[in-house]
Amino acid sequence: MLEYSTLAAVDLGSNSFRLQVARVEGKQLYPLDSLREMVRLAAGLTADQRLDEDSQARALGCLERFGERLRGFPPHTVRAVATNTLRVARNAPVFLKKAEAALGFPIEVIAGHEEARLIYLGVAHSLPASTSPRLVMDIGGGSTEFIIGSRLKPVKLESLYMGCVSYSLRFFPDGKITKGAMRRAELSARSEIQTIAAQFSSTHWRDAFGSSGTARALGDIIKLNKLATESSEGDITADGLENFRDRLLKIGDIEKLELAGLRADRAPVIAGGFAIMSAAFAELGIQRMSQAMGALRQGVLYDLLGRFHKHDMREVTVRRFMQRYRVDAAQAGRVESLALLLGKQLLKDFPDEAETLLQTLSWAARLHEVGISIAHSGYHKHSAYILGNADMPGFSRREQERLSALVLVQRGMLGKAREFIAAPLDFALLCALRLATLFHRSHGDIKIPRLEVSLDDNELELSIERGWLEKNPLTDTALSAEMEQWGVLGFNFRITRPD
Q1: Could you tell me if 137 and 164 lie in one domain?
Q2: Number of folded domains in the chain?
Q3: Which of 244, 260, 291 is the last residue in one of the domains?
Q4: 100 and 158: one domain?
Q5: Cα–Cα–Cα angle for 268, 274, 278, rounded to 5 degrees
Q6: Most-buried pick from 217, 450, 475, 486 (CB within 10 A)?
Q7: Does residue 224 fall inside a structural domain?
Q8: Tell me, what DSSP letter sits at residue 141?
Q9: Whether 136 and 284 share a structural domain
Q10: Beta-carbon neighbour count of residue 165 at 10 Å?
Q11: Is 84 inside a domain boundary?
Q12: Within-domain flag for 115
């Protein structure tokens, strides 16, 4: 994979959208430019979990401006990720097509645990090296992530469905901050955090850090308004939060909040963010939390940089899955080798996309039998379910869905492959994987003859020496059955057998 001198990350958060551009120097990143807009996407979720037109318009306008800044960037140097609101919005798929057109780059919807991993990666790179365990907490617009890690490695990851925007709308919809509303908000957040308290309490870490806007706003407010009994130096303290609660309740109206350190665009969601932070202090036994400069977008940049330096977290995940599900490594290697051989032939006319597609094919080949750990019968269905639903660090939701779909159609009836067949590049991956698993069905070391495969519209041609098929009648029979399967869908699978 090529290396580049400049990388960019786009974070489509539930509260704000951010763009970060950085210069690459070896294995380090140095900020060049950043843009931020308070889109407040989560505020546009209707009762039936759909993004309304106003929120979509705000988001698309922002992405068009980001797209102008990114114009001319090579595709592999930009990574855009979307978080909680686009995980839950029912009309997210339709919106994402418009969003990608506005930005000019693909957008990945990442799972909560993946968001937590990337947040920790960004925070860890902004802190001095330490072997002591650290707690990192990130209150977003729609979700809050908790991570315990050491050095650059996260050990425990959790994502809870509560954020400063969603809580502010839920408990302070009219902007009034009453004692009853605050109590309900804090109890609700404490109830959520209670489910993870045993694993994330202060007995499991030494220092606590808060990342992103809510933590920084609370730290600044406590410091600049002298709400802590001792000098806080920008940290969030337990007594500082108590005093800020009193100040909020005394003022009682978000529109009347005029506090040093509180920006106008942060004020509408500060009450919800405070309730979540206060609950975390109470449930996890936090006394003091320092501010961390790193966040999700920095984590995305470092993760992208790692891919160029052969430290791709997705590769680590694939190896771990092979171990966890006791995949037959020898068989996985056989299928991978043949699938890639065939895949390169089928993708020869798509040089720009081939590298990424062959990487996906490699992962699918190595993981195609993870479902055997559940049952051998219908293992491809079990494999597809695991890959579609498990937490897979480094993978976006779209990447997981693609892997799941590809593994599902590795064998059996082809009716379920209609979506793959409709896309020429996916069709090529499908053909390569099906043929590779077919030839290696015996799970033994066999000498594969020279194979040549080509794909032209609705015709797949496989060239294989006649003598080999005569010596391997089971494979010959399986290929005949495969030809019938393709015929049912109106495709011509033709086998030539030169002497």
Answers
A1: yes
A2: 3
A3: 291
A4: no
A5: 170
A6: 217
A7: yes
A8: S
A9: yes
A10: 26
A11: yes
A12: no
The torsion angle over the Cα atoms of residues 402, 408, 413 and 417, rounded to 10 degrees, is -10
**Is the pTM above the cut of 0.85?**
no
Strand-strand pairing, 144-150 and 78-82: unpaired
CATH number for the domain that contains residue 414: 1.10.3210.10
The identity of residue 92, as a single letter, is A
169 and 224 both lie in a single domain: yes
Whole-number Å distance between alpha carbons of 12 and 9: 10
Residue 187: give its domain's CATH number. Answer: 3.30.420.150
Q: Which two tokens stand for residue 209?
A: 């850090």
Domain that includes residue 392, residue range: 312-446
Task: Order the strands of the 28-37 sheet from edge to edge.
Answer: 28-37, 17-25, 6-12, 78-82, 107-109
Size (the chain), residues: 499
Q: Taking each helix axis from N to C terminus, what angle separates 112-126 and 296-308, rounded to the nearest 10 degrees?
A: 90
Predicted confidence pLDDT, tens digits, the chain (499 residues): 456 689 999 999 998 999 999 998 877 888 899 999 999 999 999 999 999 999 999 999 999 999 999 999 998 899 999 999 999 999 999 999 999 999 999 999 999 999 999 999 999 988 887 889 999 999 999 999 999 999 888 999 999 999 999 999 999 999 999 999 999 999 999 999 999 999 999 999 999 999 988 999 999 999 999 998 887 788 999 999 999 999 999 999 999 998 999 999 899 999 999 999 999 999 999 999 999 888 999 999 989 888 766 677 888 889 989 999 999 999 999 999 999 999 999 998 888 788 889 999 999 999 999 999 888 888 899 999 999 988 888 888 888 888 998 999 888 887 777 776 767 788 889 889 999 999 998 888 888 888 999 888 778 889 988 788 888 889 889 888 888 888 877 788 888 877 6
Residue 437 sits in the same domain as residue 381: yes
Domain identity same for 357 and 327: yes
With contact defined as beta carbons under 8 Å apart, do 141 and 217 qualify?
A: no
Could you tell me which of 465, 468, 411, 467 has the C-alpha nearest to residue 435?
411
Pairing of strands 107-109, 78-82: parallel
Quote the tokens at residue 319: 């190896």
Are residue 332 and residue 410 in the same domain, yes or no? yes
Q: Is position 120 within any domain?
A: no
